[in-house]
Design brief:
alpha+beta, 4-stranded antiparallel beta sheet, Transposase
């Protein structure tokens, strides 16, 4: 590694010299210099200190590059020992930061902060809280410790729990939420028709009932989030959402699950405004479902494992879409086989144990028949001995991997019906994230802030998935291997990232985000300095 000097002659004849950190590499048998980082004008940097730093790095790695002839007269280089003082993961946080800025979330937060002054950059602290939930949701570390010890967060070198609390209070502010959500609407205007709305009900550790509302695009990107006390969930379309229905120029479709698909429930949704998607109950003898499934029709694929067909019934305003997921069908078949094997083994055990005690056999069989999950597979024939009902097994096999969705929207495509319903059901992973959140946040406004943080984490990961065509698990695993290594010695410090493999490069390219520079910081004369700026 060495310093490379270049010069340029200005129009007035003045010569300006520049210095860069470079190293030699062999290409097709010839040695060529490779510039790692431009350091600026010679008259504005400590050239001697930079030369000592380059020599220190060469000595540490056993390099053989020399500080060659481009150095200015009188610049002496002396070697000094250097050591690795810090190693942090940077690949995933760098990607999320790029998405964060593209969606203007950071700009909206800074606008909400305004002229107020804080001891820490709260916009960066909020990003760190969101990145922590996206990258390490199951980590035992707090977000502050994660930033201090494990992750390289662009623009933030350290934070503490008090910074996190102040940032959460800022995010929970109604004005801040409005600015952030409006910025998201401006960032994805071409994806907002149709917009799907769904609610998630759950209970916190302290017993509080919370209802979270999500508005998603058809690609599964959550662009709006609401949070209400549990009692507000009695209204299928709360006031804030009705306001969105009135102001949004495109279609807003409310998505409800199988437990909310009765005739009365759907009528309430239609009276509240907008259209609905409703999952139909499949295994409770619903005659409407039986009529839909009995209609013949040809399936068409919308994904490798998902095929659909549309059904219309006479006398029904709603349209119906029959979906068949081949992956789910295999899971259903496997689970049913395992259940039947378990039941057969239990019946054999009862018969063997109670062979001479009829009363005990009857009691054991009645207990098995009353089991909430196993009992539905059993039938008691005239001879009085329980056995697996073959008609029930055949009926269940007919439903493997299938579900039926009803919609009142006459214009939405069957594909958008299917994907909108599927994305919002998958978004219920947010419920799991909320329930596994850190303890100690009992107050309502802190719970609301945690909801907003997990919503933003879901937003960033869904954007990354949609742009790259890969799951977030794959993205997190691949980019989690990109590390930032900091070397320091008496001459100063330098932070360098590990080289990218083709898979990692492809992820950055898919999102049009420039990867972190190989040399991300150089600070002559400062031992252990860490670079965090983009």
């Amino acid at each position: 590694m060495f310093l490379r000097f270049t010069s340029r002659t200005n129009a007035d004849g003045a010569v300006v010299r520049y210095v860069a950190l470079a190293h030699n590499r062999r290409v097709d048998g010839r040695v060529k210099p490779d510039v790692l980082m431009s350091l600026g004008r010679v008259d504005q940097v400590d050239v001697a200190g930079l030369q000592r730093l380059a020599a220190s790095i060469n000595k540490h790695f056993g390099g053989c590059d020399e500080l060659t002839g481009a150095a200015p007269p009188g610049a002496a280089g002396r070697t000094a020992s250097s050591e690795v003082v810090d190693v942090r993961a940077i690949g995933v946080t760098w990607l999320l930061d790029g998405v964060w800025h593209r969606l203007d979330v950071g700009a909206a937060l800074r606008a909400a902060i305004g002229a107020r002054r804080f001891t820490a950059d709260l916009e960066r602290v909020l990003f760190a809280l969101v990145a922590h939930r996206a990258v390490a949701p199951m980590s035992g570390l707090s977000a502050a410790e994660w930033v201090r010890e494990e992750a390289a967060v662009p623009g933030l070198s350290t934070m503490d729990d008090e910074h996190a609390r102040r940032a959460m209070d800022l995010l929970e502010n109604a004005d801040t939420q409005a600015r952030v959500q409006e910025s998201l609407f401006r960032a994805v205007p071409d994806r907002l028709d149709p917009l799907f709305f769904n609610t998630i009900h759950f209970a916190c550790d302290g017993g509080e009932q919370i209802v979270v509302g999500l508005a998603m695009t058809k690609e599964g990107i959550p662009v709006r989030c609401w949070c209400w006390p549990g009692g507000a969930g009695d209204d299928p379309v709360p006031a804030e959402v009705r306001d969105l229905l009135d102001r949004h120029p495109g279609r807003v479709v409310t998505v409800v699950e199988r437990g909310f698909s009765s005739v009365d429930d759907l009528a309430r949704l239609r009276r509240a405004g907008g259209h609905y998607l409703a999952g139909m109950r499949m295994r409770d003898g619903n005659r409407l479902v039986e009529a839909v499934l009995s209609r013949p029709g040809r399936y068409r694929y919308v994904r490798d494992n998902l095929r659909i067909r549309e059904v219309r019934l006479d006398g029904q305003d709603a349209r119906f879409v029959v979906c068949h997921d081949s992956d789910q069908a295999r899971r259903d078949h496997r689970q049913r086989d395992e259940t039947i094997v378990h039941i057969q083994a239990e019946l054999a055990r009862i018969a063997d144990r109670c062979a001479r005690n009829e009363a005990a056999r009857v009691r054991a069989e009645c207990a098995l028949l009353d089991h909430p999950t196993l009992g539905r597979w059993l039938i008691r024939p005239p001879d009085g001995r329980l056995k697996v009902d073959p008609a029930k097994v055949k009926a269940e096999a007919r439903l493997d991997g299938k579900y039926v969705i009803a919609t009142s929207d006459p214009h939405i495509s069957a594909q958008d019906v299917t994907l909108g319903y599927k994305h919002l059901l998958n978004a219920r992973d947010l419920k799991t994230q909320l329930l596994t959140g850190p303890a100690g946040h009992r107050s309502e406004h802190r719970i609301r802030a945690h909801v907003q943080i997990r919503w933003l984490a879901l937003l960033l990961t869904r954007v990354a998935e949609h742009a790259s065509g890969q799951t977030w698990q794959t993205i997190n695993r691949q980019l989690g291997r990109v590390a930032q290594v900091t070397l320091a010695g008496p001459a100063g410090s330098v932070a360098q990232t590990t080289p990218l493999c083709p898979e990692q490069t492809a992820i950055y390219q898919a999102l049009s985000i420039q990867p972190p520079a190989r040399v991300t910081a150089s600070s002559p004369g400062r031992r252990g300095a860490r670079g965090r700026s983009r």
